Amino acid sequence: MDDAFVQAPEHRPVAPVAEATGVPVIDLSPLAATPPGAVVAQVGAACREWGFFVAVGHGVPEATAARAAEAGRAFFALPAERKAAVRRTEPAPLGYYDAEHTKNVRDWKDVFDIFPRELPPPPAPSADGELVFVNKWPGDGDLPGFKLALEEYAAAMEELAFKLLELIARSLNLRPDRLHGFFREQTTYLRVNRYPPCPRPDLALGLGRRKDSGALTVRRPSTGEWARVRLVRGSLVVNVDDIIQNGIFGSNSKPFAGFMLKTAQQVGPLSLRVRGSVASSPRKLLSPKAAAATKSGDGVRIAVLGASGYTGAEIVRILANHPQFQIKVMTADRKAGEQFGSVFPHLISQDLPRLVAVKDADFSGVDAVFCCLPHGTTQEIIKGLPRHLKIVDLSADFRLRDINEYAEWYGYSHRAPELQEEAVYGLTELHRDDIRNARLVANPGCYPTSIQLPLVPLVKAKLIKLTNIIIDAKSGVSGAGRGAKEANLYTEIAEGIHAYGITSHRHVPEIEQGLTDAAESKVTISFTPHLMCMKRGMQSTMYVELASGVTANDLYEHLKSTYEGEEFVKLLHGNNAPRTSHVAGSNYCIMNVYEDRIPGRAIIISVIDNLVKGASGQAVQNLNLMMGLPENMGLQYQPLFP
């Protein structure tokens, strides 16, 4: 290899040492239907804390990006003399180039540059050597459709670029078009990069230091090491650069001149830049799991274990509208061999694999698992799953940290204590940092979700006393599962309500565990659940004693502050009472606080859909976090009413 390409030892690429976590992934699709407030807040936070973010739901058609990528491959495959015909020159710096340098070291790549909006050529050559920005195109005989493919992609990307500038301006409390004037005319250009095979990828860089390091890696400022970043198919990486940092926004340790968009569908990268720079190592440092997902075009590949139960079916319903999760394996031992649509006809329109027995499931082409099997059956199954899988378990088997307490309440010893120690409790709004880095998440129960969301913040803030916490909760019949039970027959439950599990419901230790952790002191509760004659829904009514000097309004204001900005936890105003019909079919938890007529006491009511926020919706919310996706992805549907 020519010495001109060899980087100094301190700047050579190295293998990634860890997987980056917490990289902001922002879904822009809500902009099409709702005010931009929430997205503006996410963009502002990402720019301040990271200096870049990953955009999904951005509106640039995948087919348009694919055509541009294919056009780029076709151009770079041309013979050298045909590419040389559109080679860029000093007075005309657009077109093909293969000798770019960074800090006097050549970059291992070829490029092709165009402007999205071409100005007419000057009527005569400039006498003072002024640059002439005119696109150079190969002849249609060489590449039919090449010009149109790149122009369509560049136009779509430029439109997005200015939308993003508006979001960035709003996040800085500027008027939306405040930054447009700096980047109009010809400060925007599209670059197609090609990274040919490199004989010594340990010595060269596709683009050198002080330029963007690519969609697949992020530089750790503290150590200078490389870390893998999970790649979302069809996403764009948006880097915020020096011109608009203004001492407020962060940086990923490389100065840029504007900001950059880059598609995750690569020639190398197809990049639209507003006075920016793009870089990539010739070795694509991508985790095997993400690489496999990207290569197959399937996003995150999912297995659903126990798909014939209510929670499994609800997972399938939610994932029907999830842009990144694709179901590849579904198990149901008693329904093995059947089509899912024959088991649940309301989902017959979905293109899904046949159900198989768990023992016959092939996990080699899977990235993550939703385990919807009954408690007591999951421990050994999950213990036998490949270690590369991310797992959300919807049973109770990994919720209790104390395996002796588990044996006491569930009647048998835990058979996977090593996994019990690894599992992270998945009450999303209260444990998201731990969930984000977890391999195995224990999805909370429905009653514990509806109860802990209001009570944990109040206990932690010492606003209520830890004694005499009384909870009256009511659930729809689906909470009892799909298995045939005499007590759940229509004639047994119709036109009535009855208590069950009095003093012995298995969710009691889970609730007490969460409250005890928050209080840092042992908490016990009086909890009585009831079964209502309705299909889905859950209401929990909690009676608490106020701490000295605390009012019911203090509880309300603290919960309002705790959940401000949370998408799925909402407080009603005034004396409005939450109803199960307010949340049916959604991932919301709605609550309110009331002053009791007995002095020193307050009443808190919360409602959830037991199958969504109480089970499958929260499971998807958790796996979104675990896979580095927006937490709300696939969950932004409103409740069904009436």
TrEMBL record:
<dbReference type="GO" id="GO:0051287">
    <property type="term" value="F:NAD binding"/>
</dbReference>
<dbReference type="InterPro" id="IPR036291">
    <property type="entry name" value="NAD(P)-bd_dom_sf"/>
</dbReference>
<feature type="domain" description="Semialdehyde dehydrogenase NAD-binding">
    <location>
        <begin position="301"/>
        <end position="438"/>
    </location>
</feature>
<protein>
    <recommendedName>
        <fullName>Probable N-acetyl-gamma-glutamyl-phosphate reductase, chloroplastic</fullName>
        <ecNumber>1.2.1.38</ecNumber>
    </recommendedName>
</protein>
<dbReference type="GO" id="GO:0003942">
    <property type="term" value="F:N-acetyl-gamma-glutamyl-phosphate reductase activity"/>
</dbReference>
<dbReference type="InterPro" id="IPR026992">
    <property type="entry name" value="DIOX_N"/>
</dbReference>
<comment type="similarity">
    <text>Belongs to the NAGSA dehydrogenase family. Type 1 subfamily.</text>
</comment>
<dbReference type="GO" id="GO:0070401">
    <property type="term" value="F:NADP+ binding"/>
</dbReference>
<keyword id="KW-0408">Iron</keyword>
<keyword id="KW-0560">Oxidoreductase</keyword>
<dbReference type="InterPro" id="IPR000534">
    <property type="entry name" value="Semialdehyde_DH_NAD-bd"/>
</dbReference>
<keyword id="KW-0055">Arginine biosynthesis</keyword>
<dbReference type="Pfam" id="PF01118">
    <property type="entry name" value="Semialdhyde_dh"/>
</dbReference>
<feature type="active site">
    <location>
        <position position="446"/>
    </location>
</feature>
<dbReference type="Pfam" id="PF03171">
    <property type="entry name" value="2OG-FeII_Oxy"/>
</dbReference>
<dbReference type="GO" id="GO:0046872">
    <property type="term" value="F:metal ion binding"/>
</dbReference>
<dbReference type="InterPro" id="IPR000706">
    <property type="entry name" value="AGPR_type-1"/>
</dbReference>
<keyword id="KW-0521">NADP</keyword>
<dbReference type="GO" id="GO:0006526">
    <property type="term" value="P:L-arginine biosynthetic process"/>
</dbReference>
<dbReference type="InterPro" id="IPR023013">
    <property type="entry name" value="AGPR_AS"/>
</dbReference>
<dbReference type="Pfam" id="PF14226">
    <property type="entry name" value="DIOX_N"/>
</dbReference>
<dbReference type="InterPro" id="IPR044861">
    <property type="entry name" value="IPNS-like_FE2OG_OXY"/>
</dbReference>
<keyword id="KW-0479">Metal-binding</keyword>
<comment type="pathway">
    <text>Amino-acid biosynthesis; L-arginine biosynthesis; N(2)-acetyl-L-ornithine from L-glutamate: step 3/4.</text>
</comment>
<dbReference type="InterPro" id="IPR027443">
    <property type="entry name" value="IPNS-like_sf"/>
</dbReference>
<dbReference type="Pfam" id="PF22698">
    <property type="entry name" value="Semialdhyde_dhC_1"/>
</dbReference>
<dbReference type="InterPro" id="IPR050085">
    <property type="entry name" value="AGPR"/>
</dbReference>
<dbReference type="InterPro" id="IPR058924">
    <property type="entry name" value="AGPR_dimerisation_dom"/>
</dbReference>
<keyword id="KW-0028">Amino-acid biosynthesis</keyword>
